[in-house]
Design a protein that fits this description.
alpha/beta; globular; single chain; 2 domains; 10 helices
């Protein structure tokens, strides 16, 4: 098991954001967490990447306990987080943003290879390499955020609401992008409010309500669940 979370609880002050959540991601899997806005989805990803402390619970990554570890150490282990809103460096160029993604790496030949592959996979970024990231369209910024994360050599990629603010055409392109990442040997934990998108991309899913997991299983089980149909698919 690549990632194992046991009884994660997170508070913001006195308010409970995540209540005893347990989840797993195996090597090579794409797993999604779905739920309404405010359900605690993004908080889980922030806790996994060391940005938000746990009240209680345990997180293992590649058999190593990482809760309480500094974020840059977690990144160094290969757990990479694309936050909601992409969080690029808007006044730096596309090329500089990509280089920053590889800032913890020392394998120059590997960095060059990954940079070439990023430009090959996202040709628009090659054309915009000297353009400031803040001047890109929403879709181009999402491409850059994904490419920058790949430069960090992830083993597990946390993706927080990648469809947010994108045009429908770009949303449809996210699924083949995620599949391509997965085919490169990268596991993915996807947080999405766009439930049809999430269920197309993932193999297993967890549904979150008010900080608690209310249902989990493989995608076929999810699609057949009356709870999921009523709450998320308009059934």
């Amino acid at each position: 098991m690549l990632l194992s979370v046991q009884d994660m609880t997170v508070h913001y002050g006195k308010a409970m954001a995540v209540d005893r959540v347990s989840l797993e991601v195996a090597e090579g899997e794409v797993v999604t967490i779905i739920g309404a806005n405010g359900a605690g989805k993004s908080t889980i990803l922030k806790a996994l990447s060391g940005l938000t402390p746990l009240t209680s619970g345990r997180i293992w990554f590649q058999g190593r306990r990482i809760d309480g570890m500094a974020p840059f150490h977690i990144v160094g282990l290969g757990l990479i987080h694309i936050p909601e809103g992409r969080r690029l460096f808007p006044y730096l160029t596309v090329l500089s943003n990509l280089k920053l993604g590889a800032s913890l790496r020392e394998d120059k030949a590997g960095i060059k290879k990954d940079m070439d592959e990023a430009f090959e996979h996202f040709p628009i970024l090659s054309k915009r390499r000297d353009q400031k990231a803040g001047t890109l369209s929403g879709g181009e910024q999402q491409m850059l955020a994904i490419a920058r994360s790949i430069m960090a050599k992830p083993k597990l990629l946390l993706m927080d609401e990648p469809s947010l603010g994108l045009a429908p055409k770009m949303v449809n392109e996210l699924i083949p992008i995620m599949r391509n990442i997965n085919e490169r040997g990268v596991s993915v934990l996807l947080v999405e409010q766009n439930v049809p998108l999430a269920l197309k991309a993932a193999r297993r899913a967890y549904a979150l309500q008010v900080g608690k997991v209310v249902i989990q299983g493989n995608i076929d089980e999810f699609k057949g669940s009356e709870i999921v149909k009523r709450a998320y698919l308009g059934g």
